[in-house]
Amino acid sequence: MRALAARLLENRLAAGGLAVMxxxxxxxxxxxxxxxxxxxxxxxxxxxxxxxxxxxxLGTDALGRDLLARLVWGTRVSLAVGLAAALLAAxxxxxxxxxxxxxxxxxxxxxxxVIDVLMAFPYLLLALAVVAALGPGLLNALYAVVVAxxxxxxxxxxxxxxxxxxxDFVEAAxxxxxxxxxxxxxxxxxxxxxxxxxxxxxxxxxxxLETAGLSFLGLGSQPPQADLGAMxxxxxxxxxxxxxxxxxxGLVVFxxxxxxxxxxxxxxxxxxxxxxxxTPGRPGAATRVAPGLAPAAPAEGLAVRDLTVAFARxxxxxxxxxxxxxxxxxxxxxGLVGESGSGKSVTAHAVTRLVASPPGLIRGGTIAFRDDxxxxxxxxxxxxxxxxxxxxxxxxxxxxxxxxxxxxxQVAEAIRVHRVLPARxxxxxxRDLFAAVMLPEPETIxxxxxxxxxxxxxQRVAIAMALANDPDxxxxxxxxxxxxxxxxxxxxxxxxxxxxxxxxxxxFISHDVGVVRRICDRVAVxxxxxxxEEGETRALLAAPRHPVTxxxxxxMPVLGRRRSAEPRPVPEARP
Amino acid sequence: xxxxxxxDLVKTYPARRALFARARPPVAALKGVSLxxxxxxxxxxxxxxxxxxxxxxxxLVGLVRPTSGTIxxxxxxxxxxxxxxxRAxxxxxxxxxxxxxxxxxxxxxxxxxxxxxxxxxxxxAPAAREARSRELMQAVGMEAEHLDRFPHEFSGxxxxxxxxxxxxxxxxxxxxxDEPVSALDLTVQAQVLRLLADLKAxxxxxxxFISHDLAVVEAVADRVAVxxxxxxxEEGAPAEVFAAPTHPYTQRLVAAVPxxxx
Lengths: 575, 262
Fold this sequence. Notes:
A: alpha/beta, 2 domains, five-stranded mixed β-sheet, 12% strand, B: Rossmann fold, globular
């Protein structure tokens, strides 16, 4: 809670909004204690006094009532009605949304169709209908605003609750013997709460505006009671002769709504776990490089020397990769193995400076690819290199392929980004690539969307995309970890064949030494950001020297060797 | 004694008719599966994703209602247990999910996560819950201080230990493990497998261990059943099944496993 407040105040706009609202709220709350004139006392003799008149600092309205007093009391009414409307709408709307989203099925259909009917009416028409049915009055205006805003909450909360319905922890709660109501209240509701708070905080300003609008039309607060909307309505009649009468309440409405919206936006950012901890902001196109690094000497293939990559954290920078050197010659396959957290993926991403920055920073070392110094290249130069001469294959193709684009179009796009090619030629090339990665029916499979393919087929598409521009180096980051064993074997065979046919270099990242053994010529073992052992694959795995390597081998599932007894925990060498 | 008995289990997901979307024909996830597991033993179930092994697991704990066929847990029909409410079922059989982090509510501490089965299933009095929670944490090799932490503060291996502790909390003697180590690093896998073996020996548990990893199943299972296309195609002692597979599907599966020699 304190952390939340701190994050909220870090946002300068939200802090400003909070300050304005604190002042407005305090004045409104203290209205009965302030030395104000009676807001409803008319004085026809002193009508339409200009502002800064002694005794009436904001002047008087058409009936001679003190504008300052009316403003303070009117703000009090408007705030109370707006907040009450927001709370009521949040309560009713969220309850409907929760029930619909969690229960699903027929309940959801019925509830959401009712909500749809409400939504089909324009908001003002709906509010007018409610007021027409109930009669004008502040309370009825409040009901109207609540009814008009229930669909908004119901739909938002339903979406969040429906996403949680099938989650493992909800089923785990069911298996723990909890009843449905209890699951809804103690498992689902706390996870939906941020959504409700955010929705409420971003709409409360809007609801104050809506109540003011109804009062302006004469459907809300009734004379002589003041509220900001009614004051605007009264000021409209004398707009030409005494503009201050309408301008003053208008300005206050603007201030309140503006600062509430700023607070709401700030609250949303503060509650969003994705924005937590890090500096909000888009990572750059290339990992930042510390200034003053030595230039890289040209190499035959890929050459990485003493690479050090750090991540900025609130408690200071932490090195994820510390002085890694490796080389991949053309046509060679180098395996990089290690447990998760050993820095192997960061090393792989740093090669073309794909580590998100901030927080990533390359603190030292050199990376050369043929004649290019990758740490000195501008983003534009890197972009020409990526996907053309150095291509990537990632672990989960379902997250790297665009879900709404046909896979054939995605491969064609990868080709046409790098060279000018007519659409027809790109399609032909795509078909050839699909044939090369042995996808069934290469002619037509390009029309499929990623979700229509199996995991193995998706990974074949990703490999086809990596091959699209005949790269010299493929960086494969755990390309088979998400796949079944039989599919894994096929993908490994495919990569191996392509590498031999096309003289490709492969940097292969994995935590599975069995997989690495199947495809790699050389292997480097990583732990704690360093390479602890390196050598020819079979020789190294047959006679491992470092305990990490031994641990990885012992942990490997091998048929015919029961491994439940032997693997010893690998000694941790963490900072 | 037979701990789990499944007879002719069929689960068919009905056809979906849709006004605008493409209609879906009925999908047969399980086509008459029968198996028995003796008390205190482990049955390994292997097969590729989509072969129906997860549907089978979810049928066994009542998360999926089978179309036909019977399941008996320790002699009592699952339908009766389910009809008696979630509590009777939860006391007889428990489930460990593949992804341990997502099986724990991100907004609840470990203490709260363990409290639910202790309260609703084991019927432990509030005063005794603290001591029992500490015992459970100790049993899975975690510290009592970890009780006040939230799931995201743990690594995958630690979270899976906690999930196992939660399954133990109910006092069920049959535990269905649905790919319990697939999301873990290989070294962590070995540790969790050792923990499972310890717990089984100490508490006399019966495991249904589902995995696509043959070597893992071989390491933990007393018997193994190979599933393909919603049916069990081969069953036997793991050494025999994997050394001399008779069904072509099993042969393909065995051939695909990476080896350290050859």
